[in-house]
């Protein structure tokens, strides 16, 4: 077979425009050039693509079938061209991201939509998990970079970059004794079970003598909703659809809770590429714009 992508493009354009002359005008070519190209394509394929006994360019039965194939080949050719241009610009062909499950969903969803538009040929893999798990994914080389809540000192094998913060607060279930609208103090919190985040080598501050631990903010929020205790949670988790109606924030100025730090991790000696750097920059902007 000696047909070319340009011949396929002229065939598809003629079929869509309805005539050789209209296709020629659309392509900026002479009508004779378009007719000749399609004639050569027909010779090479061994079938007539158009019924020339009619005034306009009417597809033959074979032409109707091959039009679908031609469109698909042109789509693949465009995809190949896009990927080649992306690689030539220094973008990665594939990227694996590990994401802390507790990061703001709206920011993640927006980021994914924008990546799909900006890097249409990118082969993307997403791995989700707890803050500890996503760091493990990078160390195991299952992910190129990770975004997670800062859960303490970074391991020696990692490089890191702070990219933003997320607000946190004290939350209880509706109907909990602390959910009466009063400003509470630390001694008030100490009277009730505290649900703490648990991570290796990270010790959260316990304000109550009665403590339960979990390695997942979502699991912790579920226990709070079940009236098993109170917890310090990222505000975005407490406002998530499944918890929004069940949880209530308790004002406790004496805790002076700082905003949770979010960081990007990657292995030392493996500087993030152009695509990963764009993701980091854009995610930083989205976290900054996330409502408290």
TrEMBL record:
Protein family according to the UniProt entry: Belongs to the LysR transcriptional regulatory family.
UniProt protein name? LysR family transcriptional regulator
Signal peptide from the UniProt entry: none
Q: Which GO terms describe its molecular function?
A: DNA-binding transcription factor activity; transcription cis-regulatory region binding
List residues traversing the bilayer. Answer: none
Q: Which UniProt keywords are present, listed alphabetically?
A: DNA-binding, Transcription, Transcription regulation
Q: Which SUPFAM superfamilies match?
A: Periplasmic binding protein-like II, Winged helix' DNA-binding domain
Pfam short name (any one):
HTH_1
Q: Where is the HTH lysR-type domain?
A: 3-60
Q: Which PANTHER family match?
A: HTH-TYPE TRANSCRIPTIONAL REGULATOR, LYSR FAMILY TRANSCRIPTIONAL REGULATOR
The highest taxon in the source lineage is: Bacteria
Organism, scientific name: Variovorax gossypii
Q: Any keyword DNA-binding?
A: yes
Q: Does the keyword Transcription regulation apply?
A: yes
